[in-house]
């Protein structure tokens, strides 16, 4: 039943996205008091959507909770970029709410997903988030990197962590149980279409390297150039989830 519900949710999201693309009209520019180029790569006539347009379509045609700097950084961009420069350089999940299980399933339609379980904005978590954001940039749009938190205020936590990765709420630990994460800063690899591949205890250089090898072997994604010196040699691990 849960699997059916998730499939229905994913279908609704997909249909909603399609409808937004098909119905991109001046009505939205009037509603939001924004020019076409705010959401699209062309200043008139629509065209490809940048990260703002993706956010708008993923959040019920609303800019509620939109924050330029956070969304740009999550998209791997410099804030206030326009035109072609506003197209995400990473696999960008525009929805800000969740729940985590369903949003991971949506991301997995595009390809494999790497999860980092977080709980609070302490120094170790900030270091891990900064490091895994570099991994996201290296893979570009081939792999989605997401944060998962027990906290129901995941958006605020994402801001506290520098707005470098999208964090979703998992208050009932549905995702943590499915992907066998037991402590904050554990890492999990999710195959395309959402099935678990492997979980890792803590965030470290060795575990990032292991994830890249699994992506290459199982998902056939070529390993990009990642500066492993920027990945923590010592394993970072937080409190029990």
Briefly summarize what is shown.
The protein is of the alpha/beta class.
How is this structure best described in words?
By secondary structure, this protein is of the alpha/beta class. It is 39% helix and 10% strand. A five-stranded mixed sheet has the order 3-2-1-4-5, with helices on both faces. It starts with a helix and ends in a 23-residue tail after the last helix.
Number of strands: 5
* Poorly predicted ranges: 1-24
- Which strand order does the major sheet show? 3-2-1-4-5
Shape: globular
Question: What is the helical fraction, as a range of percent?
Answer: 25-40%
Written as H for each helix and E for each strand, in order along the chain, the element string is HHHHHEHEHEHEEH
Span between termini: 26 Å
Average predicted confidence as pLDDT: 89
How many helical elements? Answer: 9
Strand-pairing-aware structural class: alpha/beta
Main β-sheet description: 5 strands, mixed
β content, as a range? 5-15%
Computed Rg: 17 Å
